[in-house]
């Protein structure tokens, strides 16, 4: 059976003309080359398409990144502006608070003082009118009274009330004035033949900012003070105007 089939195949091959056999042999590799060329071209085109697509995606991605950078820069500028405005508002609020505190502190004015801190002192009789300097200052709210000069300086325009007390004995008379700037306002006077004596007075004044008030001892007069603080000078702001 095998011999018969082989014989038939030989007959068929013998029946094919030699020229057709050569053409079949030539056509087969040429078809392969064509397929290879087409495949190569397809691969090249695919690579080109992929490169183009990648380039497009990279460009699009770069555009998006640049856009995000611009947005971030705008947000940073906006944040800086907001922080600057907030800081400015905070500074303004702090300034207003400090101003209100100062105004409140200015409206709190009161002091009391006497001639000596400790021991005993007799001033006078003086040759000419003399400003009394009260050294012992237990109260000086607002620091409007100066214990180095004896002067009270009005920190705010308003109505102020003052009181002053002189103490002496039979060695001489005690007399003096409360002075506003350079004007004698109200006076005190006391003189007696024996024993301890005192004189006092009080007044309410309208003062402008910077006005000064002090006590002046009259010429030929004297005052006395000791640890009991008999000779005093006091004042306080009633209300600002």
UniProtKB/TrEMBL annotation:
Q: Does the keyword Cytoplasm apply?
A: no
Q: Which UniProt keywords apply?
A: Coiled coil, Secreted, Signal
Q: Name one GO cellular component term.
A: extracellular region
The UniProt entry, under Pfam families, shows:
C1q (PF00386)
Signal sequence extent: 1-21
Q: Which InterPro entries match?
A: C1q_dom, Cerebellin_Synaptic_Org, Tumour_necrosis_fac-like_dom
Residue ranges occupied by any C1q domain in the UniProt entry: 104-241
Q: Which PROSITE patterns match?
A: C1Q
For this entry, the protein name equals C1q domain-containing protein
Protein's organism: Perca flavescens
Query: Could you read off the lineage of the organism from its UniProt record?
Result: Eukaryota, Metazoa, Chordata, Craniata, Vertebrata
């Amino acid at each position: 059976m095998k011999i018969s089939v082989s014989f038939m195949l030989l007959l068929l091959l013998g029946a094919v003309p030699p020229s057709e056999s050569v053409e079949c042999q030539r056509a087969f590799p040429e078809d392969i080359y064509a397929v290879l060329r087409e495949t190569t071209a397809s691969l090249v085109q695919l690579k080109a398409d992929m490169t183009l697509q990648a380039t497009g995606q990279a460009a699009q991605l770069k555009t998006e990144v640049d856009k995000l950078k611009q947005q971030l820069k705008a947000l940073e500028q906006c944040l800086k502006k907001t922080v600057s405005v907030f800081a400015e508002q905070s500074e303004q609020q702090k300034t207003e608070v400090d101003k209100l505190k100062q105004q409140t502190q200015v409206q709190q004015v009161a002091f009391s003082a006497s001639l000596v801190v400790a021991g005993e002192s007799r001033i006078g009789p003086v040759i000419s009118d003399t400003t009394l300097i009260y050294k012992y200052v237990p109260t000086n709210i607002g620091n409007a009274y100066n214990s180095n000069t004896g002067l009270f300086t009005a920190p705010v325009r308003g109505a102020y009330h003052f009181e002053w007390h002189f103490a002496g004995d039979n060695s001489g008379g005690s007399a003096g004035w409360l002075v506003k700037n350079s004007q004698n306002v109200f006076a005190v006077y006391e003189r007696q033949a024996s024993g301890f004596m005192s004189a006092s007075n009080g007044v309410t004044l309208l003062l402008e900012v910077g006005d000064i008030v002090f006590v002046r001892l009259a010429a030929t007069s004297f005052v006395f003070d000791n640890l009991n603080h008999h000779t005093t000078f006091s004042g306080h702001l009633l209300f600002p105007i």
